[in-house]
Design brief:
By secondary structure, the chain is an alpha+beta fold. The chain folds into 2 domains: about 60 residues, no CATH class; about 35 residues, no CATH class. It contains 3 helices and 4 strands, in the order E-E-E-E-H-H-H. Strands 1-2-3-4 form a 4-stranded antiparallel beta sheet, with helices on one face. Helix 2 packs across helix 3. It is elongated, with a radius of gyration of 19 Å. The two termini are about 15 Å apart. InterPro entries: Arc_rbn_hlx_hlx, Ribbon_hlx_hlx, TTHA1013/TTHA0281-like, Uncharacterised_HicB. Pfam families: HicB. This is HicB protein.
Length: about 110
Amino acid sequence: MLRHKGYTGHVEFDDEAGLFHGEVIDLRDVITFQGTSVDELEREFQDSVDDYLEFCEERGEEPDKPFSGHLMLRLSPHLHREVYTRARKEGKSLNQWISDRLEQTG
């Protein structure tokens, strides 16, 4: 993963084209970049993020920010009760219990 100014880039290698291509993954707007070497890829990623921020500034728009950490989650009433009960048994808040479980899967 690449990081620049709070943004994260995900990279894949296209063996047919012989180049790396990537996308900034933590925002709704689409920002892509590519390169044939690691150095070029990192430079292109940073340039793409910087260009995006400059473009937003020129248009007077607020750039899309990386995710805030707030997540709205809908569950069935049965699952909601089950998760809440498990969290209480472990002495945790519902948010902390869910966050801990998600971190375990990553």
